[in-house]
Task: inverse folding
């Protein structure tokens, strides 16, 4: 007799029956355990339900598994990172080389009186200062790579190099909150200050104004979101007439540039100019280096009550330098005078000699020079020396983004008239400042050091330093934001510019 194969459904039924019997037997022996843990019963029931439904819902189970994996993948995705550059993006114009690189290629005649070529190296920081000898290491620091013979007119080059490494630099102008124009305006005007007519002096500025006005980026705010930096004083760009005998060019009087923001080492009273620090000799790489330097200048013993680094000027110019030098030399060793006329001026181009004088002085005298301000202000602050001003235009009316509002916190003010008529004794005035006041002022000066230096270009890493560059860029962005809001509200920018200049709403 022929045997027939059982039907597959019969085998399924037999399997389920056997499993069910085993389950009953299992329950009889461990009933106590199940009573104590009802979760076991639920798990076993779920097991049998899955067996019973496996044959009819295999395809559906695969789909559910796929959906579950997809859901897990979505849940595993990290949240989108916040755009830390929102509102901080800057677009840098790619200017034709004639507006920057070609200017400094011919570096010898940029300033009539001396050769600028040696100072162009190291991204405009100048030659590196060696600290191999004991004297230099004692005055500066044993660390290498942070000290340079930086020229006071190199701000535009340094600023451009820093901008190349700015963390929120964008190639998409539509994202930019501000537009940077890398024009070497200071070198353009300085090479034409002597022996050139006004047409030559104005030529490149006029060409740049036309180039900018045709760019699509310009149309957004008619240039009110554009800015540039220069290592010259603002008066060099505001010639009052077209007579060849008048000084400078008329860059800032051109309609296009009158809308732009200018960052300069010294400004006038115009509302679109802002003063930024002169470059110093110190360009550190990290917060650690800055901290080490701050500790050094706070603890150093200071031999002189006051000092003056500079050259004498004719009395007919109205300069008080003659009186300052006279009192310094008559101070019986309480004042140090470094004469910049000695050794052909080389002593005052030597970072070690200058910093040595300032480190050894409690107060550093800062009279006006060719203009109200001087680079020496920042060299003395870098050395932890308390600056002494003789005119508000030398510091208090200039560097509002960098100096404390209360000038008494970090400096001493001696009215210039008292020096001119000989009624003020610097030794007496400065000698009466108490030790506690000196300590407080020095601490304030030392706190200012990170704000007045320009960090070496190309730095990356977690240690962000809010140096002079970062502060300037931040304030430009704030100013552009305010201008944009005023334009949207239909306000008269000219009547409201005083608010923009002081940034009172933001301080």
Result:
């Amino acid at each position: 007799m022929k045997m027939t194969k059982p039907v597959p459904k019969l085998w399924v039924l037999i399997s389920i029956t056997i499993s069910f019997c085993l389950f009953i037997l299992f329950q009889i022996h461990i009933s106590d355990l199940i009573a104590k843990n009802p979760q076991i019963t639920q798990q076993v029931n779920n097991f049998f339900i899955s067996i019973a439904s496996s044959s009819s819902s295999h395809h559906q189970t695969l789909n559910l598994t796929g959906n579950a994996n997809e859901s897990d993948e979505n849940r595993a995705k990290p949240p989108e990172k916040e755009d830390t550059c929102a509102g901080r993006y800057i677009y840098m114009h790619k200017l034709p080389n004639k507006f920057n690189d070609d200017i400094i290629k011919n570096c010898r005649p940029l300033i009539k009186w001396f050769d600028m070529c040696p100072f162009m190296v190291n991204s405009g920081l100048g030659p590196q200062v060696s600290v191999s000898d004991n004297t230099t290491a004692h005055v500066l620091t044993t660390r290498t790579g942070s000290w340079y013979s930086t020229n006071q007119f190199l701000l535009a080059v340094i600023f451009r190099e820093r901008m190349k490494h700015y963390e929120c630099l964008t190639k998409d102008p539509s994202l930019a909150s501000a537009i940077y124009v890398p024009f070497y305006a200071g070198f353009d005007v300085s090479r034409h200050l002597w022996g050139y007519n006004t047409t030559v002096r104005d030529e490149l500025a006029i060409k740049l104004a036309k180039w900018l006005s045709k760019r699509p980026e310009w149309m957004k705010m008619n240039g009110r979101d554009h800015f540039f930096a220069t290592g010259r004083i603002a008066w060099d760009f505001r010639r009052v007439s077209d007579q060849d005998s008048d000084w400078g060019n008329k860059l800032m009087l051109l309609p296009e540039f009158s809308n732009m923001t200018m960052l300069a080492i010294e400004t006038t009273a115009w509302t679109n100019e802002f003063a930024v620090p002169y470059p110093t000799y110190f360009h550190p790489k990290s917060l650690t280096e800055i901290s080490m330097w701050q500790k050094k200048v706070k603890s150093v013993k200071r031999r002189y009550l006051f000092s003056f680094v500079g050259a004498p000027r004719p009395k007919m110019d109205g300069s008080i330098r003659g009186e300052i030098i006279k009192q310094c030399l008559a101070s019986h060793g309480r004042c140090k005078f470094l004469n910049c006329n000695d050794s052909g001026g080389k002593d005052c181009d030597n970072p070690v000699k200058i910093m040595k004088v300032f480190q050894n002085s409690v107060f550093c005298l800062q009279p006006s020079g060719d203009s109200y301000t001087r680079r020496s202000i920042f060299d003395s602050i870098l050395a932890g020396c308390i600056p002494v001003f003789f005119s508000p235009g030398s510091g208090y009316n200039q560097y509002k983004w960098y100096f404390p509002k209360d000038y008494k916190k970090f400096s001493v003010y001696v009215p210039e008239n008292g020096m001119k008529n000989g009624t003020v004794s610097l030794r007496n005035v400065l000698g009466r400042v108490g030790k506690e006041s000196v300590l407080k002022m020095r601490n304030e000066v030392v706190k200012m050091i990170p704000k007045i230096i320009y960090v070496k270009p190309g730095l990356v890493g977690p240690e962000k330093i809010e140096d002079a560059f970062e502060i300037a860029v931040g304030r430009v962005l704030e100013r552009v934001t305010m201008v944009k809001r005023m334009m949207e509200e239909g306000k008269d920018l000219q009547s409201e510019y005083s608010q923009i200049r002081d940034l009172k709403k933001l301080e």
Remarks:
- Residues 90-279+466-506 form one domain.
